[in-house]
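Hey, I was hoping to borrow your eyes for a little while. I've been puzzling over a protein and I'd love to understand its fold better. The fold is given in discrete form, as structure tokens running alongside the sequence. I'd be grateful if you could look everything over and explain what you see. No rush at all, and the record is pasted right below.
>
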Amino acid sequence: MMLSCYTTNLVEYLGATAVQRLARAIRLHVRTDLSSGDLAFSHHKRIDREHGWELAYRGVVHWPSALDGLVTELSKHGAVLAVGNTRHLPWSPNYRSTDIPHWILLTDWDGTQWRVVDKFDAQLPSGQQSPYCGWLPEDKLRSALTLPANLDNHLLLRDEHALGTPTAVPTQCRHRWLVRQTCSERRPPAGRWLTDPADVLEYLGDRLATDRRALVNHADDLWAAARHHCFQRTILDDGPTADWVGLPRALRFAVESASRGRDRPGVVTAAFRRLLSTEVRV
């Protein structure tokens, strides 16, 4: 499935019916008023409230408490979504190089080892990410689920909005996972959000063409958006995807060019204009 690591393993956790639910829930909203200057993205409506519960983060500083929490959640529900760190995932192309939060699924524990499932499959700028299923001893799992003390803000924003609406992230904790809880009261998200597809694409085209930091930090967010929209069109048989496919390529070219000191605003603007034309027509 053409999804992000979040949605790939969220669908795996929620079960087969989640595929159609996610396809119908795909959208792209963007928050534009954060004091940090970063953008927040909501890629889909929530799909985890089907049975009267919702997912929420839990986090702790010390591993023994994390182990207790993971065992408890596994014993209750048969699986746990946990937040891994690509630097410590041997199957990740970012292994030993880059700290990026990455959801994985824990499905069994024999007292000493954990069965880990990661269905994410993608060609990334750093290399091929292939699905993984195997057993990790406790010390390896501990490493896999250890996040750095200070993640970049744009990475924390991805975690915060990974479920579709803002979900509190325990940012000072080194180990994080998700638990089921009673559904909370539904409230409009705080801040200024663009929700109309034309407004979103026009804004992003202008912003990423003129703001190098935003382009570098959020190119992967648009890569995820493109994957989600291609997935939606594939599942629902609902129109063309060529311009969504082309967007990440154009942004990656612009990022690589910017890293050499040569900005390519025209490439960014043209990619969003093509996509805007397609989306308005669809």
